[in-house]
Amino acid sequence: MTTERLDTCFAKLKAEGRAAFVAYVMAGDPDPETAFRIVSGLPGAGADIIELGMPFSDPMAEGPTIQRAAQRSLKQGFTVARTLDVVRRFRQGDQTTPIVLMGYLNPVLSRGYQRFAREAAEAGVDGLIVVDCPPEESDPLADELDKAGVSLIRLATPTTDDARLPTVLRRTSGFVYYVSVAGVTGVKEADAEAIMRPVTLIKAASGLPVAVGFGVRTPERAAAVAKFADAVVVGSALVDEIAAALDKREDPAPKVLARAQDLAQAVRHSRKTVRA
């Protein structure tokens, strides 16, 4: 099950011969209104897809940058319900940009799979990444997301071997998210040459677009990855702009959107050399 918005986005970009720029930010960070100005401004800054973090108290896959973002968001009282409210509000002005939620299983399980899937679809969510949900235990969640028309997007990593890959890809839809470095977000930088082969293999095995994230911070690295990946995900570099602006008592929104624009332009101007 893949949402129409994701299908349309990737088909359009494939025809243009370029990768998607996926911008990650945490819902509610640093405060509800500033966060919404950032989210609503991302398409204009060049984001093709928005990845919206659902704050969680123990984000084990995240490095310090996004851990602190989650803490700021939780202090603002952000929850799954308020994250979905952000999507609803965004959809009042934008019906085309895909939104993918990224988070952890506990808040989704606490809300109930059926309720979460229904509310996510009604809000306008296109996909869900649940970092700590093993594929072997994901069928109940996948069943409800399928019914609601929301893509379940899975993570493949440098340690996903040939024997494990079919299990990871089973019931994956929308796209596959390739974690380009071993470890947490925002700490190491991706080696474009080293990840080209696994990305190519995952595309062949899944028949789906492959997005690369966890190790992309600079326009130069984003452009290099965009030559062979179907999408380039940047999160920590954008969230760092929020923290830096807060330290200087400045408005984070212009800083984040300017950084996003630089990254988006690098991705847009990097023509793909490996076609899907």
Write a short abstract of this structure.
By secondary structure, the protein is α/β, with parallel strands linked by helices. Helices cover 49% and strands 13% of the residues. The protein has a nine-stranded parallel β-sheet.
List the main descriptive attributes of the protein structure presented here.
single chain; 276 residues; alpha/beta; 9 strands; globular
Describe this entry's structure for a reader.
The protein has 276 residues and is α/β, with parallel strands linked by helices. Helices cover 49% and strands 13% of the residues. It contains 12 helices and 9 strands. A 9-stranded parallel sheet has the order 5-4-3-2-1-9-8-7-6. Helix 9 links the parallel strand 7 and strand 8 (210-213). The radius of gyration is 17 Å and the shape is globular. The two termini are 20 Å apart.
Radius of gyration: 17 Å
Based on secondary structure, the structural category is alpha/beta
Give me the side-by-side strand order of the main sheet.
5-4-3-2-1-9-8-7-6
* Biggest pleated-sheet summary: 9 strands, parallel
The global form is globular
Helix content: 40-55%
Taken as a percent bin, the fraction of beta residues is 5-15%
In whole angstroms, how far apart are the ends?
20 Å
The count of β-strands is 9
The residue-averaged pLDDT reads 92
Uncertain spans: 183-187
Order of helices and strands: HEHEHHEHHEHEEHEHEHEHH
Number of DSSP helical runs: 12
